[in-house]
Every structure is written in structure tokens, then in C-alpha cells.
Amino acid sequence: MGWVSALWRARAVSDVHAQGRGTGVIMEGVESRLLMCGDPHVAGWTAPAARAVATDAVDATTTMRLTPGGATAAGMTSALSPTTTTSPVFMATSVTTTVWSPAPSARQAVFEAQGATANGRLYSFGGFNGSLQATRTSYAFNPATHSWSRVADLPTKVTHAGVAVDGGRIWIVGGLVGDYPNNPATRDVWRYDTKANAYSRGPSLPSARGAGALVRLGRRLHYFGGLKADGTDAATHYVLNLDGGTAWRTAAPLPNARNHLGGAALNGRVYAIGGQHRRDETYGNQTSVHAYDPGTNTWKSVASLAKPRSHFGSSTVVANGSIWIIGGVTQGRTPLSDVSRYDPAANRWATMASIPAARKAPVAGLLGTKLYVTTGSSGDAAPQVTSWVRTV
After folding, report:
1. I want to staple 276 with a disulfide (CB 3.0 to 4.6 A). Which of 34, 99, 191, 284 is the partner?
2. Are 191 and 207 in contact (CB under 8 A)?
3. 279, 282, 336, 281: which is closest to 306 by C-alpha?
4. Strand 334-335 vs strand 329-330: parallel, antiparallel, or unpaired?
């Protein structure tokens, strides 16, 4: 009996989410090998559907029986040409392949830092050390020199601030000031000038907020969600005009008040992704995703996350018309290595190749075609310096 093998790579089409059922096509970063046993004598059959792998496990093995003239999987036709009248039996095996590669380590081990890319560099501002002490120390990564360099310290020991970029300026809005647990929310707004390497004050928020999300959509900044000064969740949504605005105005509130959420602006919409209730990382993580339409001043629910998730505010990235979220935390205070990508046209989340290790509250950013992720905690408070990079 002869053996024929075929290899295909399933990339960027993974949809293991369903609604948490774990079914779907083979995940990105997995190579699937078909081993066919049978005498090659008669042509006429085609490859099986890629949905043979029906488990969240990456290293899954599935047996599939095909008959001559069977259905062809969408976008995939077998390169094999068996010639047998018997019904061949296939075994599909999946093995993880390397999508992420090591990148230069950060200069300090932190998590809950504020991160953004501007002028061809990835910035990491402040963060917590392993003793949950906040630092003002900040760095920038230059891909041209493959190195990190020190930049001006933050004006205050702030963590959990919202971050957005407007040209060469990085806005750092709200946040929690000081060492945990005595780190109250703040109204402070700072603008970091990447060319001058200096900070200046911006219009203060109407109320103190920490762990909310900030995005720039056109010439407006949107800050939404977060923790209030009393530690309860905020649904408030503030908007600042970047062209001469001196005060934040109020817009439609979030349907689900939450903090430690991700935010993104894409295709004329503002997205509020995941998050948690109060300071509850054990049971309070959320799957909710909402999209805001500034034309109608309304939010609507869109496809939910596959699992409850928070702590990826500075690792939410827009790339190639999609929203990527990297790492974070799920129920039980469990850090994640998950990488998920949202396609707004399809209103669907896809499971992408995981980062090599779990990271809570890392920093990520897109530089050209390279997506970088750095720092973050491997446990409850175990900050790391490890960095990784992949092509998108």
C-alpha cells in the first residue's frame, strides 16, 4: 500500500472561535499534513473540508475518510492526484509553526505601561514593576537600529492611561497615579512631543478616570469607560476636538460600563473591546464589543470575544483593515497568550498565532509591516522584558 503526503499552510483564515465552541478551520501558525494510504490508480477526488479540525488544541490529530469526487474545501484544492477506486483514508496532523520571532528585549521589566507607535518608533511609557510600584521611566524602540533608548520621564507616576497618536504627538489621558493599591484615578491629560522629547498639559478630563480607552477618529479624541474615583465602572464617553478644542464634551455612553478595555478606530467607527467590571480580574472580565457611530451618536453590539478578556489596552492595534488584540487576562486572573483579529466587514473574530508566552497588559505596536509586542506580566505581578515580532 502506497503513502502520499501533502502539506498546506492555513494562515490568517482561522476561525476557531465560533461562540466558544472551539470549531472552525485550522488556526494560523499551524501546518497540517495529510497522509493518504491507498493504491494510487484512479483520479477524481478532491481534498476534504479544512474544518476537519474541531478542537481548540493546536496539536490535534483527526482522521477523515474521502470518497472520489468529494467536496472541495473553500479556497483549497488538493495537489494530490490519487488513482484508486478504493476510498482513501486521510489522517490530518497539525503542528505549531513559528510565526513570532524574538525581538530586542525591553530595558525595564514592567506591565500596565502606556504604549504607542509614532514617527517610526514604538514607545513604552512607565508601568508597574513586580512590587506594583509605578515608574516614570520611559523608552522608545527604533527598528532601524534594532535598539531601545531612554526618552523623557513621564510627568507623573501614571499607569492605566489611555493613549492615542496625532502625528508626532502622543496623548496620554487619565490613568491611575502612584503605587498599587493607593493609585487614584486622575483627570490629567498630557501630550508628548516625539520631536522635542517633552510633555505639555492638555485639557483635563471632566472627571477622574483610570483604565479607560482612548482613540483618535479623524480630528477627535474619544475617551470612554474606565474606573471612577470611587472605584466603580464608568460608562461615560468624552470627546475632544483636536483643532482648537479647549474642553471635552460628552457623547453617548457605553452600553456596558467597564474598565481595562481595548479601544480602536477603524472605518469611521470607534470600537470598545472587552474589559472588566470594577477591579475583578477573577470573575469580572467581559466579552462585550461595541462599535460607535459618530454620525448617529450611538453604540451597537458587534461580534463578541470568544472568551472574557481584559488588560490589552496598550496591545490593541489596527493593521491591514483589522483590529488585533494581543495577550491580556481572562477569568481566574489568568494571563493569555491569545492573539485575536477582528474583521469589521465580516463582523467576525479570528484566532491568530499566539505569542510564545502569556502576557498580561503588554505593549504592542505596528511599525511598517512588523507587529511588535513587548513587556507585560507572565503572572499576577511578574513583569517581563521579552519582546517578539511578526509580519502582518
Report:
1. 284
2. no
3. 336
4. antiparallel
DSSP of 371-388: EEEE--BSSSS-BB--EE
- Which residues, other chains included, contact 326 with Cβ-Cβ below 8 Å and sequence gap of 6+? 312, 315, 316, 317, 338, 339, 355, 359, 362, 364, 373
- pLDDT the model gives residue 15: 35
> What is the C-alpha separation between 146 and 225, in angstroms, rounded?
36
Query: What is the DSSP-derived secondary structure letter of residue 5?
Result: E
Amino acid at 157: K
Residue pair 377/386 in contact (Cβ under 8 Å)? The answer is no
The residue extents of the domains of the chain are 1-97, 101-391
Closest CA to 274 of 228, 238, 225, 227: 225
Contact 104, 386 (CB under 8 A): no
Element (H, E) at 370: strand 370-374
The answer to whether 323 and 273 are in contact (CB under 8 A) is yes
Residues β-bridged to residue 310: 329
Whole-number mean pLDDT of the chain?
83
Residue 344: CB atoms within 10 A of its CB come to 18
Q: Beta strands 158-159 and 176-177: pairing type? A: antiparallel
Compute the distance between CA of residue 212 and CA of residue 205 in angstroms, rounded to an integer. Answer: 12
Choose among 83, 72, 109, 23: nearest CA to 383. Answer: 109
Give the closest residue to 325 by CA, choosing from 266, 278, 257, 239.
266
Residues of the chain with pLDDT under 70: 1-27, 29-97
Measured CA to CA, the distance from residue 232 to residue 65 in angstroms comes to 55
Amino acid at 297: N
Q: How many CB atoms are closer than 10 A to CB 101? A: 12
Instruction: Please state the pTM of the whole predicted model.
Output: 0.80
pLDDT digits (tens, 9 = 90+) for 227-241: 999 999 999 999 999
**What does R_g of the chain's alpha carbons equal in angstroms?**
23
What are the DSSP E strand ranges found in 61-194?
61-65, 89-96, 101-103, 114-118, 121-128, 134-142, 147-151, 158-159, 162-166, 169-173, 176-177, 189-193
The answer to whether domain 101-391 has CATH 1.10.1740.10 is no
